[in-house]
Structures are given as C-alpha cells and as structure tokens.
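Running co-folding for tryptophan.
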Amino acid sequence: MHVNRRGMAVVAALVSALACAPADEPSSANDHLPGAPGIGDTDFPKDGNGGYDVTHYAIAIDYTPASKQLVGVTTITAGATHGLSSFNLDLSGFTVRSVTVNDAPATFSRQGDELTVRPARPIDNHATFTVKVSYAGVPKPAGDGSNLGTYGFMPTPDGAFVAAEPNGAKTWFPANDHPADKAPFDFSITVPAGVTALANGEMVGQPTTVGGRTTYRWRERHPMVTYLATATLGKFELRQGSTPGGIPNLAAADPRFTTSIDRLYATSATITDYWATVFGPYPFGSTGGVVDDYAAGYALESQTKPLYGGFHPDETIIAHELAHQWFGNSVSIKRWRDLWLNEGFATYAEWLWAEHKGTKTAEATFKDFHRRRAGDPIWKYPPGRARAEDLFNQAVYSRGAMTLHALRRAVGDQTFFALLKRWAADHRYGHVTTDQFIGLAEQMSGKELSALFDAWLFQPRRPQ
Ligand code: TRP
Ligand code: ZN
C-alpha cells in the first residue's frame, strides 16, 4: 500500500519550485501531473506506476476455457501520492472497452503494456479514487524478463494456471504490477458449470450457478503483492478442514494428481503449523496448496495457496512455498534486486525442514554447497544483487540460503532464530530491503557483520 517513489517526488518538488509556489499555498491546477509510467525500480523501469498507492483490487472475470475468452472488469481503489492529471496501469493484451474514474467516463490510451488513464477531472494529492477498467480478449502469457519461461495467465485444456511472478499479473488484470504496492483483493470468477475456480484467501459464500455458469467469490483480506494473485481454474478434487494448529486448510488437485491430495493436505498442515513455531504466527487466514496439470515444472508461493505445476510436490518444495508465506508474501521486497530476501529464506527453510526431520543438518547442507569448486557459477553471481535478466538464478536461492547459515554460525542459534521471528513480526504485511536485514542482524547480535554480508551477498567469488 505505501511505497516511496522518490523519483516522482523529486520531479514534483522541482516543478512546484519552478512555479514559485510556497508550500502552504492551496493546490492549483499546476499541481496535477502525469503519474510516472514506472514505480521506480531501475531494474524494471516500466513495472508498476507512480503517483498512487492501491488500497484494494476487485477483480471480476468471466472465462471460457473452450474459446479462451476472458471478459474482465477490474475496479481499483487507490490513494493519490501527488496531484494527478493522468496515471498509468500495467495491462498486457486485451481490448480495453471502457475506463471510468470515480464513475465518470475517462479517456485512455495504450502503449505497450502501459494503459494511460486521463480522468475527466484531475485527482488531488491524497485523494482516494476508484478506477474501473472493462476489458476482454484471449490472455497472452508473458515470457520474457526472467529465466523461467512462460508465466502469467496460462490457459490449460480445462481452465487456466495462473502464476505471475515477477510481472505477469498484467496478463490478466490491470494492475500496479510491482511488489512495492500491496493491497487486499476480492475476486469474482465466472466459469462454465463444472469448472472450479480457486483464488487467494477464503471463499465468500457459496458458488452460484445461473444459466450454466458458476460464479466463485474469493477474498484475500491481507495485503498481497500482484504476482501472488491467482485464479487457477479447472477440474479439481478438494480436501478441506483445518490444521491441528487451527488454520483453515484447503488442498486441491487436478484429476491427474489426485493421488497426491491427501499428502498435500496433511503435509501443508504440518509444515504451516511448524513454521508458525519457528517464524512466528501464520500471517494469513488459510493455508493449503493446488496441484494443477499444467506442466510448468515449478511451484509458486501464491498467497494462502501455493501452486504446484504438473508434478507431485514433495515435503521439501512444500516447506519452501509455505515459508514464502512469511518471507516474500507477508514481508515483501521493494525492489527485485533484493529477491534473496524471498528465495534465500525459502531455500534456507528447506534446509531447516530437513534438520527438523533429522534427515540432514543445515550445517551439512551448507558444507555441501560451500565445497563447490571456485569456478562453480554460483560464486560468480552475487545473490544480494539479483539481475533483471537472470532474476531467479540458482545463486539467489542457494547462496542466499548459505548467507543465512553463515549468519547463524556467526551469531549463534539463539540470536539467529530470534532474528527470524523479529524480522517477520516487525515487517508483517510490509516491505523491506537488504540493508534493513543487515541492520537488524547487527543490532540483535551486537556484532559488526558487514564483512560477512559483503562476502556472501555482494562479491563475485567464493567466500572463505
Ligand atoms: N518463486 C517461485 C519459487 O521459488 C519461482 C518462480 C518465479 C515462479 N517466477 C515464477 C513460479 C513464475 C511460477 C511462475 O518458488
Ligand atoms: Zn521460492
């Protein structure tokens, strides 16, 4: 919800300085400027937008698997962070039918994945406004900007697999598509009767069927990053209940993967409850997981419902995706270069799970990685500075996890585990940077740790 957009603030300050307007003068028409086309992440300059913070998304889509036609109406509530003469949303593909701002027709134009909206009346700084976009077409998944192949809204024979990290939310709804702006979501998803629609959070009411089409309503009431939003559609078998610790739990499996459903349900429950003892209280209203038949070969930590694309998930990957609920989903990054704060932590959670199970200590896993020869590519890629063209490099995962283990060795178990809990608690539902983590580690340990973090996160060579 809140984010600093220093770039835009500077421009605004400059413009008002040029206009010689004293700071306490009432706002004039001059104070209304176009919102920036990017949120200010220099590695992803077009992602997200400037000039507003989203406070709520209401996404209503109607999807027909046979024709792949999506008809959508997305209503975004936002607060202006400077006066706006126009502002941008991110949207990829589709025909935009109409846009209204505060219920008044607005003009709009499109350039690449930028949808520029010019409201009939400019929006004052700090004003809350709603923008409603009606759009339709066949979704086209994204396929660039990372080393992960296809992502976004991916049609499947029986529905869709929707996994959008890092910037594929715009392939199915207009968004401020960057993790620096989080908001709660409401979903209304209409599909042919017989198709199940699974989105984040919890179901609202019962699905209703009219004229052979069923509408499902889901609500994620906690702030959520756009890439975590999902509307996974298809034929699913469901298991529902609660974890022993009392967290509502929902497992879903495509007919091809129903042999996994009981294990997914039970393992997700056990691991969610266990992480709550290690990382602190579970941040969301429900847990679970979805196995779909889309052969992505990967998983995504979709908020409250990790997605497993086309394989039977084992405990290790379930431990990883559920750890992301704390690290990545509740505590989120402001810029993609800090991705190790998500992936290094979730990978370290895999090591912790093995340690907990008694199969392998984190120390032994660390040593196996550390033993890798000096020429191994993992040492060339400093994980503290994830690169846009190779965002999900293995180093961000494994060397990120090694960084945490090196820290644990340096500060001892007691401080280390207190630090993990404190990090999750202090920044619950918020945003963080790597410097903040280093600062907290130094504060809680009373140690000077810059050499350790520099060697593990920022040097293109194997640390000692
Ligand atoms: N965050 C995922 C994980 O490590 C990996 C991932 C990145 C991903 N981009 C994705 C998964 C796009 C699905 C779609 O668990
Ligand atoms: Zn991950």
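Result summary
The longest strand covers residues 52-64.
The two ends are 41 Å apart (CA to CA).
Job closed.
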